[in-house]
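Please, structure for the following, as tokens.
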Amino acid sequence: MSDAARSKALKFVVLLGVVSLMADMTYEGARSITGPFLAALGASGAAVGIVAGFGELAGYGLRLVSGVISDRTRKYWALTITGYAVNLLAVPALSLAGRWEAAAALIILERTGKALRNPPRDAMLSHATASMGRGWGFGLHEAMDQAGAVAGPLLVAAVVHSQSDYRVAFAALLIPAILALAALAAARFLFPRPQDLEPIARPLATSGFPRVFWVYLGGVALVAAGYADFPLIAYHFQKASVVPPAWIPIFYAVAMGVDALAALVFGWMFDRIGLIALAVSSFLAASFAPLAFLGGFWGALAGMALWGVGMGAQESIMRAAVAGMVASNRRGTAYGVFNAGYGLMWFCGSALLGVLYDFSIAGLIAFSVLAQLASIPLFLWAWRRHG
């Protein structure tokens, strides 16, 4: 492919990266205070947990529906724009919520919007990254995405510190939300047919996915099940007095920074050694649990860094690999199936890890480490079959 074509594809990826950066500033900034905000409105701890868990489950489960619709209608842009609009505008609307039930509905609506837009957006990215290396392309997108995930909570922290009002912070997030939608409109105008960025599409498939996809998804499911969610880790940090409360958000910011760097590094590796890169990242990330749950201050920090390594690889390599396993006209559905399976196993694994934490931290660590290590043979089998 010519340098001009690669340059055009890179511009598309960067433009969608800007969208994701601003979008992550918006909803990750909001997620850093939705728990305290719900509590301030009178919600119980159980209500906060249910809202958060159901929002994540809906956010991943609905991606299957979105992926199927995007492939059947070929309306990738329409679904992406609608999803982003719902996802982003629900956040500043929280500043108007007067009851915790209304806030909960907006939180779930925000996750629903994200579910709607992710599969068609990733399908469009798969076309652009074909010419520049899918690992590098998805890694670059994830790095920009995580830059927003770091900036958003810091922006909210500054607003809350100066104004002492969660509502003002939610209202301030309208600015990055509008910037994200403006960048998305520019991308739609400049690249109305992203599929043209992929010069040679894989042959059309009438139904089903190849066996390698399902084996690969099994490996992804094991990683998701064994990966402790940050709220549980933060809960441990505070309960065990491992990390001072003021440092817990900083630890999360460190993990997000490592996530962004890891996405670039492992994305670059993926383009050269394929799924071996994912096996390597899974091996490294498996060590986060003993460090985070048994270590002191510095051990916990190292554990969060390795947690960020795993997240960066998951958000870049895992998505990049899907694009090469299925035909171009089935990618929306494939990303929907992938995200639904990943989200379901993340939810089930998080629930199990939470139960294990109450009974045995050693059991939690053993399950987390073994589940992630068990994924490696499946990734290597997929690499031998698919390359």
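The mean pLDDT is 87. The chain has two domains: 1-133+144-187, 208-387.
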